[in-house]
Write a structure and sequence with these properties.
The structure holds two protein chains of two kinds.
Chain A: E1 3-5, E2 10-11, E3 18-20, H1 26-33, E4 38-43, H2 50-60, E5 66-71, H3 78-83, E6 88-90, H4 97-104, H5 112-124
Parallel strand pairs in A: 3-4, 4-5, 5-6
Antiparallel strand pairs in A: 1-2, 1-6
Chain B: E1 3-10, E2 16-19, E3 25-26, H1 37-47, E4 56-67, E5 70-73, H2 76-83, H3 123-145, H4 150-158, E6 162-164, E7 169-174, E8 179-181, H5 182-194, E9 199-202, E10 207-213, H6 218-226, E11 244-245, H7 259-270, E12 285-288, E13 302-308, E14 314-320, E15 332-339, H8 343-357, H9 368-375, H10 377-390, H11 400-407, H12 422-429, H13 431-440, E16 441-443, E17 449-454, E18 465-467, H14 468-481, E19 485-488, E20 494-500, H15 504-514, E21 528-529, H16 544-554, H17 558-561, E22 566-569, E23 583-590, E24 593-600, E25 612-613, E26 618-619, H18 623-637, H19 644-651, H20 654-662
Bound molecules: protoporphyrin IX containing FE and iron/sulfur cluster.
């Protein structure tokens, strides 16, 4: 399955060092990730949003390597995945990389409203 | 022999269709082919070729009977799908709009409401909504081309407020914290008139639902609403929903903190939240800022009470895990005295624990209320506190600068009028006015003003429904008397929040003329009722007709009975809040017959309680008798000035049980 980066460009495949299932016990795993090059988080079904919280927690814990989404997710979720800290994406068979690229064409950014309110207030001030 | 037909809903417009063999799909059940058991398998294969999903969804067989050359579905639900809502025989099922008519200009192109207390959008915010409407158009296109399966499309359309119901698609539009400008209400009226069949339904969650949308029209309807800064974003789906509050927010005399500011902040924070948009289940937040809880915060996933601490700063009391549905719970308290900067951080911590651990194996056990009970509240609170403590210090911090930035975009209402005594004098000669004022107005923090409630519960009408014409009238009255501002209450009524006392007699006269002066707020005929089986695909019973019959029966005694909340749901999902009604009615199906379970003693306010079922369900036709008997017993038993709920709390269910079951 094609692997893409956060700009939806195809990149050459590398095997993850570890694949975390959605019910992973994070407290136990977080301290072990440190130097790993690629940590994958599995989405069993696009509706199952646990991977978003797992990714945020891993990034907040300080992990700086490649964080990869695998399994089933939609182009419509691409921006959310990026926001939560994913940096590579094994795109599912049903949704080709081009559709992910199309999702990036949108000016919209997740969580932008509150940030924008602040930015605007600073502009005005 | 069991006879069956095959039915589904057309993808493009949601109309119920019936399979007619070689003739494809028809809109009339009478033209359908019927099959016995032996023929069904082959027929289903014929009706469901591999690409069937591109045209018709939810294809299935339903039982029919054959009488005098006509086919009649057996199940009530299928009869309603075939004919249309039983409570609106003027609106038969089927295609009602061809979509080619030229529409007039939008109200927002000629009307504006510069003084209404809505959050002021700028072009950037408006573009955000226009963009969302266009994106939804792309999703619909992707679905119609087969690039998205129905299974993938469904959560995406739900996230934009679009359901597939019995007769068409339903569009749910948020009214953030229940505040609308006159212009926005006119825009809603426009959508009701042109994209729907002339009306909308205001819900208990400060939303409005349109029942007759065609999927093809939804992007255009959303684009029209975007021009007035309204949207259906996150009004459904497993995400953070519209934040609700007190309908008198910013106006009520008993308020200490105006919750609209924080509700708006929560709206901005939760819209498109990257981490919390695919939660185990829906997530509802409510916030109040007065001593009296008018937004039922204790039956929400997160409930927030804002109040002032010793030095006069606003702080929050946080509850979580309340909810209704099949397992009703009153929320547990997590925190007192949470300072403003920590509000979103604390909510993040709650949601993180929930997103990671909430059940995903069983949708009936997926709400946060179940997680909290399964973990035990203390263990849950400890996990939230640990998660909260481990958040980076600046993460999601609600800085003073941010609060001020949002606050600056709410116009402060100017309320200079003093009480000139006009109302008091008019009430002396006009008993109808006096009664309406007593029942339908609420004390305002500016002494020359009141908040006025416009009842959407005329006796015999449909609770919460308003026609496009009525919406336009209310918008005009808001412009004339209330700074162009309207509120939607969680009991499905409308409110003019800032009416000068001296203007009340004139307002009342205008309301009488428009047929909107029903003086029943908080009384037995001010019933909360969900749409029930006439519109809702999940229903087990029709709630609207029962509400109508109860109101008709008890209207003559309602002022004598006094404050009483009757809440009705058409199924266990409890959208009609039956668990927290002083009297709750839940419609269930018993061998093909609608019957109603009665609960007593529920309350949604600061004394929140889940009502208790008092005995076997009552047949539909007997419900008005049962409620009347209950009321007669109450009138005999009450002490002076005692509300029904207080008599119930004093005496328990026994005396009421007896009289209800004596009626049948
Ligand atoms: C007609 C389409 C509707 C559908 C398909 C629908 C569906 C549902 C479902 C499935 C639940 C149960 C959720 C759970 O327990 O996890 C629910 C709860 C609820 N709904 Fe609706 N509903 C509809 C309309 C309404 C309306 C019209 C209102 C307002 C009058 C409403 C307000 C609520 C409320 C307040 C709850 C209970 C609170 C809670 O625990 O979430 N819904 N709805
Ligand atoms: S309570 Fe049931 S019948 Fe009523 S609107 Fe909710 S889901 Fe539909």
């Amino acid at each position: 399955m094609p692997l893409i980066n956060a700009r939806a460009e195809e990149i050459s495949s590398t095997a993850p060092d570890v694949v975390l299932p959605p019910d992973v016990e994070l407290a136990a795993v977080l301290p072990t990730l440190g130097e790993l090059a690629v940590v994958a988080v599995e989405f069993p079904k696009f509706r199952d949003g646990r991977g978003f919280t797992i990714a945020r927690a891993i990034r907040q814990h300080g992990y700086q390597g490649d964080l990869r989404a695998t399994g089933h997710f939609l182009p419509e979720q691409f921006l959310f995945l990026i926001s939560c800290g994913f940096s590579s994406f094994e795109t599912p068979v049903e949704h080709e990389p081009a559709k992910f690229a199309a999702a990036l064409a949108k000016p919209r950014q997740p969580g932008q409203l509150l940030r924008r309110s602040l930015a605007r207030a600073r502009e005005v001030a | 022999m069991v006879l069956q037909v095959i039915t589904g809903n057309r993808l493009a417009d949601g109309v119920s269709v019936w399979f007619a063999g070689a003739n494809g799909w028809t809109e009339h059940v009478d033209q359908a082919c019927s099959y016995d058991d032996a023929g069904m398998e082959a027929a289903l294969a014929q009706a469901k070729p591999e690409d069937a999903e591109l045209r018709v969804v939810d294809i299935r067989a339903v039982e029919v009977t054959h009488e005098e050359g006509k086919l009649f579905p057996v199940a009530h639900r299928e009869q309603i799908r075939a004919r249309g809502p039983s409570v609106r025989t003027d609106l038969p099922a089927g295609v009602w709009r061809d979509g080619t008519a030229q529409l007039p200009p939008l109200p927002s192109s000629t009307s504006s409401s510069p003084f209404a207390g809505i959050y002021r959008y700028d072009e950037y915010d408006r573009d955000f909504l226009r963009q969302r409407a266009r994106e939804f158009g792309t999703m619909v296109e992707r679905r119609r081309k087969g690039e998205l399966s129905e299974d993938e499309f469904k959560p995406l359309r739900l996230m934009n407020g679009v359901y597939l119901q019995l007769h068409a698609y339903m569009l749910r539009i948020a009214i953030p914290y229940g505040v609308l400008s006159a212009t926005q209400l006119r825009q809603l009226a426009y959508v009701a008139r042109h994209y729907d069949r002339g009306y909308g339904h205001f819900t208990t969650r400060q939303n409005i639902q349109f029942n007759w949308l065609r999927l093809e029209d939804v992007p255009a309807a959303l684009a029209a609403l975007a021009e007035a800064d309204i949207h259906g974003i996150q009004t459904s789906g497993n995400c953070i929903r519209n934040t609700t509050t007190d309908e008198f927010a910013g106006a009520a005399a008993d308020e200490t903190v105006d919750p609209r500011l924080y509700a708006e902040i929560i709206r901005q924070w939760s819209t498109d939240h990257p981490e919390f948009t695919y939660l185990p289940r829906k997530f509802k937040i409510a916030i109040v800022g007065a001593g009296h809880d008018r937004a039922a915060v204790r039956v929400h996933d997160i409930g927030i009470e804002s109040y002032r601490n010793d030095v006069g700063e606003p702080v929050f009391r946080i509850f979580a895990g309340g909810g209704l549905g099949r397992t009703p719970y009153v929320a547990v308290k997590l925190r007192e005295n949470l300072p403003v900067p920590e509000l979103l951080r604390y909510c993040e911590a709650i949601l993180r624990v929930y997103n990671a651990l909430g059940r995903r194996d069983n949708m009936y056990k997926a709400r946060i209320k179940i997680l909290i009970r399964e973990m035990k509240p203390d263990a849950f609170i400890k996990m939230v506190e640990d998660e909260y403590a481990s958040l980076p210090a600046d993460y999601c911090l609600l800085t003073d600068e941010l609060v001020q930035a949002v606050a600056a975009r709410f116009p402060e209402p100017e309320l200079p009028r003093q009480d000139g005594g006009v109302l008091k004098a008019a009430m002396l000669d006009d008993r109808a006015l006096a009664r309406w004022v007593k029942q339908n107005t609420h004390p305002h923090k500016a002494s020359g003003y009141v908040s006025a409630v416009i009842s959407l519960k005329p006796v015999g009408g449909i609770a919460g429904d308003a026609s496009a014409d009525e919406m336009d009238v209310v918008a005009d009255l808001a412009d004339k008397y209330s700074l162009g501002e309207i509120r939607v209450s969680h009991v499905q009524n409308l409110v003019l929040p800032h009416v000068a006392k001296d203007d009340v007699p004139a307002l009342f006269k205008d309301l009488v003329k428009a047929g909107l002066a029903t003086d029943n707020i908080g009384l037995v005929t001010d019933i909360i009722a969900c749409p029930g089986m006439d519109y809702c695909a999940l229903a087990t019973a029709r709630s609207i007709p029962v509400a109508q019959r109860i109101a008709e029966r008890l209207a003559p005694k309602q002022h004598e009975i006094g404050t009483l909340h009757v809440n009705i749901s058409g199924c266990i999902n409890a959208c009609g809040h039956h668990h927290v009604g002083h009297i709750g009615l839940l419609g269930v199906d018993k061998n093909g017959e609608e019957v109603y379970q009665i609960t007593l003693g529920g309350a949604a306010d600061e004394k929140a309680a889940i009502g208790r079922i008092i005995g076997p369900a009552v047949p539909t036709a007997k419900v008005p008798d049962a409620i009347e008997a209950l009321m007669d017993a109450y009138l005999k038993l009450r002490e002076t000035g005692e509300r029904f709920i207080d008599t119930y709390r004093r005496l328990g269910a026994e005396p009421f049980k007896e009289v209800i079951y004596a009626t049948h």
